[in-house]
Amino acid sequence: MKSITLKKLFLLHSWVGIVTAILLFIVCFTGALAVLSRPELKIWANPELHQLSSVPSEKVTALINQYHQKVPKEFGENIHVYLPTGHNTHLLTILFESHEGDENYDEEAAYAYQFDPRNFELVNEYYGAAGYFYEQRKTDAPSFIGHFHADLHLGRPIGLILTGFLGLTLLVSTITGLFIHRQLIKELFTFRRKKELDVVVNDAHKIMGIWGSLFHGVIGFTGAFLGLATIILLPAAAFVSFGGDQDKLVEKFTAMPEPIITNNFQATDINTILIDAQARYPKAKVIDLTIMAHNDANAEVYLRLIGGDAVASQLLQYHGNGEFSKSMSSFGDIPGPAIKVLELLFPLHFGNFAGIFVKLIWALLGLTTALLPLSGMMMWLAKRSRGSNPTLTEVAYQRWNRAIIGSCGGLVLATAILFPAQVLLNNFVPVQMHNDYFGPLFFYSWLAWCLLAIIPINYHRYLQVTLTLTGAACVAVLPLNLALSSSHAFTANNLLVTVVDISFLIIGALIMFAAQRINAKQFKLTEHANAQGVTV
Amino acid sequence: MTYFYLTLGCLLLVATSLLLRNATKVQRLLSLATFVLALICFITVYGSIAGVFVATASGLLIGLLTAFILGKPTINI
Q1: Which of A75, A109, A156, A317 could form a disulfide with A96, with the two C-beta atoms 3.0–4.6 Å apart?
Q2: What pTM, to 2 d.p., does this model score?
Q3: Which ipTM was obtained for this model?
């Protein structure tokens, strides 16, 4: 490749990275955590789910039949059941929905009933706009982080477009990075950890980029697709094939078409359907059901399954009498290889196709994706502040470093704070009020840490305090749980809760240890520099 | 058996990256062979499509960790 082209690629790689580095870190770091948010961390965060293995199907059937009689007729046409698996709501939720609304609502309206999965007591009742119910669902620390990763809490479509474009920039940076570092094989294992920090960061950036290139590329592409598909691709497809009518396009390709209601009574056999689905796919988990035309001769039941032998989530269709109809992708029963590829994009992005082992790999590789823009930024700054003719003054270099620590380190700290806060909220604040706490706690602690960057303090000290506080927040989770909760690492009788509690302790201790090491290293460097008569 | 295959697969991937680290032609070929064996282990556990994804991602992560822990001070020739 011509050197001039390489130079242009290098410039593109540098500037795309510099412009988007902090945002990329934010999205990638929260993405790495979001991999574990559902169901693992969500189960940990909700004591209602600690002792739960599965909900008895006969109980679900009985509750649907019982509460169907309490709602007006038009609300029985669409019933959504969210099972408390840690993927959706933390309570067993039965939602009776009317697409046309009723005398009080012109939009989609719903009656929702939520039950404690441990004893099936009615905990929450709702009547109103369906959209409002979904928006106001109880959140928790892991769900908050997951939603923040998806749209940065900027709402849709702006948030989705932004994260979608960040996916594209990650893809561009990955491809240009591979062209720049053409000696891939030669640089695969070059890591000079005993050299000065600039060299270490440089080598780390290269090996993380080379080893993770395939992963970063896949995450960038799938992230761009997930962010931009509904905002840009769907309207574009509707414009090309349906004269711009998106509803028509969705209607054509929907996986769950509305059945024709006959008004002839036939009991919908949900119990048999749930038992049959578990018998067919014993390793998979049913996460929700959609029942159309309940107790009608034309009733149809759709079950969404995740896990098991299938890589992507599956949709099972049953007739109301309990007869199995077909298994299809979540996009519906559309033939062709394109749809197979399309349905793989979701598990490839979320890493939810083969259990906790894959999720851990996705989370760790995701952390390297987050560290890439950060290390790239450090290289860019170091290059401009060193040498015989630096373009960045020492003061400006310090300011840049504080800005990075304030924004990126502040995000890590704000995220870590959410977990001990979750334990405190579970024990001191009524569940209905939890949603009011996460947003302010997260954004104000992050903002406060960013504002601290304005004060001209030593950035090494700033980094050390950031890491120490982050580690302390993680370490606090287990003792707080032990002191306040009845269901914690040693009593929960749930391996997942034990592992999560102890993992927080270990991760927190490691972060605090790293904070001390950074300080010790800097102290040694300063001593060495002083001996040579140089100011660091 | 799942844990056995997963452990074996991971050990083979460690061997793959250690062989690749030494960078002679024979060792590179051997590393390819060990990777294929690891791939078979993961396919046995997760099936053909998921197995390939898991083996590739695990290989990348183990390679990266090997590079961090046993990184070379000089560039390979």
Answers
A1: A75
A2: 0.93
A3: 0.95
